[in-house]
Design brief:
Helices cover 43% and strands 15% of the residues. The protein contains twelve helices and eight strands. It has helices at residues 17-30, 47-53, 80-86, 96-101, 106-118, 131-135, 139-150, 156-159, 180-198, 200-205, 219-223, 240-247, and strands at residues 6-10, 37-41, 59-63, 90-93, 122-127, 163-166, 207-211, 230-233. The radius of gyration is 17 Å and the shape is globular. Bound molecules: phosphoenolpyruvate.
Length: 249
Amino acid sequence: MSRRVLAAGNWKMNKTHSQAAEFIKELALSVKGAKNEILICVPFTNLETALRETEGTNISVGAENMDYHDSGAYTGEISADMLVDLGVKYIIIGHSERREYYAESDKTVNLKVLKALEKDIVPVLCCGESLEQREDGITAEWVRMQIKIALKGVSKEDVTKVVIAYEPIWAIGTGKTATNEQANEVCAVIRDCIKELYGEDAAEATRILYGGSVNAGNAKELFSMSDIDGGLVGGASLKVAEFTTIVNA
Ligand code: PEP
């Protein structure tokens, strides 16, 4: 089964509204006609701008987080309905920075995945091990556990809508990319876990991205590995020329 390559940018806490508008105008021209799928996940304050600037282009827009409650007394949070009403179609869930700095747990990741699917938003579900866990030889077990908890209650019909991003924490923003083999090996573990839970067809249809210091120089080889279906890209997604090379990888 062929899975379409997805190049997804994670802007994190970067770019003001005006910078975003200018950047997306340039990016849209630069990636016009690209054959891979393109997604940019941007800060909440840039969502309206990004949706407007990408209208009629081949770029989709996502958010970087949301709450799992529908509404209420959750100061500072954003609900799925708020995103849907704007036209947002993707959401990053469980990024390691949110797990580390904002106490995101496997349980809240699961609740967010379920809420996103209920509201027809595609979750980009992040998982990945720390350097210590890799050195302790528990990467596969750790990632399998994260995936199993995150997908608890997700139906077979819905699971293939989820995009999974394998992001070893030690490779995020460090310039230290996993080797093609290391990245592919864990993506294959994830695919095997989906197969165990949902069967071979679902496993083959689910897109699994690699993230962690993807750049213009390593994207092509990473994306050509058997179990890697694209990338979740942080730093390099903030530069038009570099992200364009990744999109075309
Ligand atoms: C990320 O933010 O998900 C990420 C992988 O960042 P970077 O590409 O900068 O390592």
